[in-house]
Amino acid sequence: MDQKRDSDPSAWGEATRLVRGGLDRSRHGETAEALYLNSGFVYPDGETAAARFAGELEGYVYARYGNPTVTMFEERLRLIEGAEACYGTASGMSAVFGALACQLRAGDHVIASRALFGSCYQIITNILPRFGVCYTLVDGADLDQWRGAFKANTRCVFLESPSNPGLEVIDLKAVAEIAHAHGARVVVDNVFATPILQRPLELGADIVVYSATKHIDGQGRCLGGAILSSLKFKEDELKPFLRHTGPSLSPFNAWVLLKGLETLKLRVLAQCAAAEQIARALEATPGVERVLYPSLASHPQHALAMAQMKAGGTLVSFFVEGGRERAFDMLRGLKLIDVSNNLGDAKSLITHPASTTHRNIGEEARADMGITEGMLRLSVGLEEPADLIQDLRAALSD
């Protein structure tokens, strides 16, 4: 790595790691990170090729196994998260599936919080059971349910905090202590909090996953994901699984994500400040039944959220009177905020979870998660908060 002489990247401040972590300049001395688009690598001789494939000599062998641009992204995110290792993947869902599937076998049991993103719910309740992995869903906020769900064959637990879209906050330290007492690992999807607001590894989690498509890119440009863990887990379980199943992160996407990391803190903190302002405004807006935002005193886990997060996040969920019909009327009335199921973007985006991100999980599962036909999820961007509040209130009053 081409770090400054006599410098220790792990000792740098957060802002410095976001901009300079993992930087590995080529012999040309470029200012921005180099973009390596090649699929393969050449060797000076057969002995070198054999040594690299055997793991006896450091170096790249094939882009599916590793790439210099991808390595820079992994190293930068590793430094930000405070993890021993990071593995970049093609998408957030490949990160979730890879982190779980690499360690689960037929006959194993996994426990998950009930409040999950639609695709995560499908992995736990539909895809993993096809391979003989059984599961139990629990109310993530109820520690007694976590304690009562463990079995002799429980291998790991999986949760989101805050959850999508209900912004449920789970006591990560307490769940980790319970899981570790039973010899189980803890996998946390930290996409809503980002490493700027919450560090699950510091709270006892074993593995953290991200959809880098969201805040890390933050500008709607590309897909990407990441898994952060101990070096042993990465080398012994994760890397063999991902190398041979192929959810590789594109070097170009890794380069875009590297540039996104440079401004991650600036964007997330600004979006959090705006989101809290908007959440408070929505609480006082006619036609809004309820607002969910972790830093509001009205949030069910407000105290916990403020204890383990630095701010309330960039997402606000709220419920409008009149169900789906009124929610769709509001979406049609928006002039500034875009209707989109993405999140963490510089542009504010809003979606109706019951008909989009959580449509395929079924009515009963949606009810268990508190997702009603009047629920809307707002991803707050970088626009002027006053403009966003005006847009929301005008759409609600139409």
Q: SSE layout and pairings?
A:
Elements: H1 14-20, H2 46-53, H3 68-81, E1 85-89, H4 92-101, E2 109-113, H5 118-130, E3 134-138, H6 143-149, E4 154-160, H7 172-181, E5 185-189, H8 194-197, E6 207-211, H9 213-217, E7 225-229, H10 231-245, H11 251-262, H12 264-283, E8 288-292, H13 302-308, E9 315-320, H14 323-333, E10 338-339, E11 349-351, H15 363-369, E12 375-379, H16 385-397
Parallel strand pairs: 2-3, 2-4, 4-5, 5-6, 10-11
Antiparallel strand pairs: 1-7, 6-7, 8-9, 9-12, 11-12
Helix pairs in contact: 1-3, 1-11, 3-11, 4-5, 12-16, 14-16
What is the top-level CATH class of the largest domain? Answer: Alpha Beta
Uncertain segments are none
* SSE string: HHHEHEHEHEHEHEHEHHHEHEHEEHEH
The CATH topology of the largest domain comes to: Aspartate Aminotransferase, domain 2
Spatial gap, N to C terminus: 57 Å
Estimated structural class: alpha/beta
Write out the strand line-up for the largest beta sheet, numbering strands in chain order. Answer: 1-7-6-5-4-2-3
Number of domains: 2
Q: CATH homologous superfamily of the largest domain - what is it?
A: Type I PLP-dependent aspartate aminotransferase-like (Major domain)
Q: Helix amount, in percent? A: 40-55%
Please count the beta strands (DSSP E, at least 2 residues each). 12
Mean pLDDT: 96
Biggest sheet, open or closed, and with what strands and sense?
A: 7 strands, mixed
Bin the strand percentage.
5-15%
